[in-house]
Design goal:
two-stranded antiparallel sheet; 8 helices; alpha/beta; nine-stranded mixed beta sheet; Alpha-Beta Plaits; single chain
Length: 278
């Protein structure tokens, strides 16, 4: 039976797509972004056992070389995440599609849809497809938050299951993108063009990071490309925030309001009609 590795489920979210949504975060990512705000979602647990030594409630234990998590004992103090050197999380759960659907049944009357995020949820594409096919039967919309590294094109079943995608475009320059994430951005832009062409690109997201990225060039180039595809697609400029990041690998600060407004004006000047700063 197909199962997905789930990091957490947030019953209600107003920032993961339109309306009130349930956000499901899957574990595992093929990017290693310098500014990652959820580095504990990058790798799978390697069962080193470090987390078990710092857990105050002993909800994490080692059994036959495997870390086990007792959810009932967990107080979510996050000591395990702080101690982990593997950019992982021991509090993940393999869930079937049926189990995920059951988990959202109580909130179903109060939400407009489901958003899958990560990590990078498209690394578990078959699970995504099967889950969204069941979500559609509930009359809910199915959105994805993706780094764009896995092709959406060429899979009709996948695209039929998805209503829309929120796509991260982290850098326009290929070499800067490699420096930032460890991967290039060729597939990202192919996905951007394809999703826009079939009206399933809900928004583009770019994180603004002072002193690390060429933010002005990125916003200028990305907004020009987006406006050529469809100027009405939302372009979200996200402030870098030094919260939850790995300060040992990135030294930056939160961008000023003046900087964000300048970048917003560049995108608007380039033809984007829906530009927001968060």
């Amino acid at each position: 039976m197909l199962r997905g590795l789930v990091n957490k489920i947030i019953p209600f979210s107003s920032v993961d797509g339109p309306g009130n949504r349930t956000a499901i975060f899957l574990q595992g990512c093929n990017f290693n972004c310098l500014y990652c705000h959820n580095p504990e979602t990058i790798n799978l647990c390697n069962n080193c056992g470090t987390c078990t030594k710092v857990c105050p409630t002993q909800c994490l234990t080692m059994e036959n070389g495997i870390v086990h998590w007792d959810k009932e004992k967990c107080i979510e103090c996050d000591n395990c995440l702080k101690a982990c050197k593997n950019c992982s999380c021991p509090r993940t759960t393999y869930m079937t599609v049926e189990e995920v659907i059951k988990a959202i049944e109580n909130t179903r009357p109060f939400i407009s849809g489901i958003t899958l995020s990560g990590g990078e949820c498209m690394l578990q594409k078959e699970f995504v497809i099967e889950l969204f096919e069941e979500v559609k039967k509930l009359g809910l919309t199915a959105f994805i938050d993706s780094n764009g590294s896995i092709p959406f094109y060429g899979d009709d079943r996948l695209m039929k299951a998805i209503d829309a995608v929120m796509l991260d475009v982290k850098s326009y320059d290929k070499e800067e993108h490699k420096m930032l994430t460890g991967q290039d951005n060729e597939i990202v832009f192919k996905n951007m063009e394809y999703l826009a062409s079939i009206n399933k690109l809900y928004e583009i997201r770019t994180v603004i990071v002072p002193d690390i990225l060429n933010n002005e060039k990125n916003v200028d180039s990305i907004s020009k490309r987006l406006s050529e595809l469809n100027p009405s697609i939302k372009y979200k400029l996200i402030k870098y925030r030094p919260i939850g990041v790995r300060t040992e690998i990135i030294k930056s600060s939160m961008p000023s309001e003046d900087m964000m407004e300048k970048l917003k004006s560049i995108a608007i000047k380039n033809g984007c009609k829906d530009v927001i700063v968060v």
